[in-house]
Write a structure and sequence with these properties.
InterPro entries: ClpA/B, P-loop_NTPase, TOR1A_C, Torsin, Torsin_1/2. The protein starts with a helix and ends with a helix. The longest helix has 22 residues. 48% of the residues lie in helices and 9% in strands. The protein folds into three domains: 45 residues; 211 residues, P-loop containing nucleotide triphosphate hydrolases (Rossmann fold), CATH 3.40.50; 56 residues. The protein is globular.
Length: 331
């Protein structure tokens, strides 16, 4: 449908150009005006803009995605849905939404960010209003810390000026140079405007492995006590998690003012995944590839992964991270 409409617009525009040569000056002016209008129409149709056509929150879509695609993360699913829904439906938020996702590799941190983006921006992660930073790629050298701070501030200010509904995702926070992230503290605070720019409708998401040990310990303690994993609540994890992250000298959040000033709205714990969750991930990947779901294959793949602790072997070391690449070996 979209392709057909574009072809039609292009055809009309090209036809308009041909007709210009056959009309008198007055008519030509009118036709050229029509051509210019059509040109703008095509540009606006194809070019992403900061308006409701390209940015519209789909709460139902986010809920369905979290329920059907994110496994073993009942706490994270509940927090993300409520936090994003409440923020996006607030016409006048007092500050940006700031989420900090913590957990081992493969537990779903990047995946959750992707789901949020896909249910806010028409172009999802490909949107020009979604900005993804990886610490080891974008901020590799400690000697350039001053430059990084200046560049990051300018980047955020420029993009929020362009679109107040911008999203910024910072991956590998546990590998970021301590002190760097403090440079964006003013943008996350309770200010109406800074230098004429309002940041209150932006979203900031931090992804980190820091605090994963604390999360894993609590989850394992529940397992050893014979408690149901689904009975773990945010209150069982949040305080220990925030303190662990704040005091981790190797984390980008070390002694950061973002935590000290309570600017992080939610510390979202991602629980380590078990065997059954890995099987579910494998089944989902098969469906995504258009394959017939094969439970025995999914189980075989899951059994070959490494699990910890060594004695109990309860949690998958890499979670669901390697499922996509490893599945080729089993099908």
């Amino acid at each position: 449908m979209k392709f057909a409409r574009i072809c039609f617009l292009l055809h009309v525009l090209s036809t308009t150009g041909v007709l210009v040569n056959t009309f008198d000056p007055i008519t030509t002016t009118v036709v050229v005006g029509i051509g210019a209008t059509l040109g703008r129409t095509i540009y606006n149709y194809l070019h992403e803009s900061c308006d409701a056509k390209w940015i519209a929150f789909n709460v139902t879509g986010l809920k369905v995605d979290l329920d059907r695609k994110l496994y073993g993360q009942h706490i994270a699913s509940r927090i993300i849905l409520k936090a994003v829904n409440g923020f996006m439906n607030n016409g006048n938020p007092k500050k940006p939404l700031v989420l900090s996702l913590h957990g081992w590799t493969g537990t779903g941190k990047n995946f959750i960010s992707k789901l949020i983006a896909e249910n806010i921006y028409k172009e999802g992660m490909e949107s020009g209003f979604v900005h993804f930073f990886t610490s080891t790629l974008h901020f590799p050298h400690s000697s350039q810390l001053v430059n990084y701070k200046s560049q990051l501030q300018q980047w955020i200010k420029g993009n929020v000026t362009n679109c107040e509904r911008s999203m910024f995702i910072f991956d590998e926070m546990d590998k970021m140079h301590p002190g760097l992230i403090d440079c964006i503290k003013p943008y996350l605070d309770y200010y109406d405007k800074l230098d004429g720019v309002s940041y209150r409708k932006a979203i900031f998401i931090f992804l980190s492995n820091a605090g994963a040990d604390s999360i894993a310990k609590t989850t394992l303690d529940f397992w050893k006590a014979g408690e149901n994993r689904d009975d773990i609540e945010l209150k069982d994890l949040e305080t220990a998690l925030s303190l662990s992250v704040f005091n981790n000298i190797q984390s980008g959040f070390y002694r950061t003012s973002l935590i000290d000033k309570n600017l992080v709205d939610f510390f979202v714990p991602l629980l380590p995944l078990e065997y059954k969750h890995v099987v579910q991930c494998a089944m989902t990947e098969m469906v995504a590839r258009g394959l017939e779901p094969n439970w025995p294959v999914a189980e075989e793949l899951a059994k070959d992964l490494l699990y910890f602790p060594k004695s109990e072997k309860i949690f998958a070391v890499t979670g669901c991270k390697t499922i996509e690449s490893r599945l080729d070996y089993y099908i």
